[in-house]
Amino acid sequence: MKTTDTALRIRDLTKRFGAKTAVNQLNVSVDRGEIFGLVGPNGAGKSTTMRMLVDALRPTSGSIRVLGQNPRDNTALRRHIGYLPGEFLTVPSLTGKGLLKHFAALNPVADSAYHDSLIRRLGAELNRPISKLSKGNKQKIGLIQAFMHQPDLLILDEPTSGLDPLVQQVFLELLLEAGGRGQTVFLSSHILSEIQHAAHRVGVVKDGSLLALASVAELRDAAGQQMHASLEGLVAHQLRSQLARQLPASTLTAREEGNRTLVRGTLRDPVAALLSLLGTYTVQELNLEKPDLEESILHYYQDGTSTDTPAGSVTAHKRGSHAL
Ligand SMILES: Nc1ncnc2c1ncn2[C@@H]1O[C@H](COP(=O)(O)OP(=O)(O)OP(=O)(O)O)[C@@H](O)[C@H]1O
Question: Region entry Disordered: which residue ranges (predicted)?
Answer without folding.
Answer: 304-324
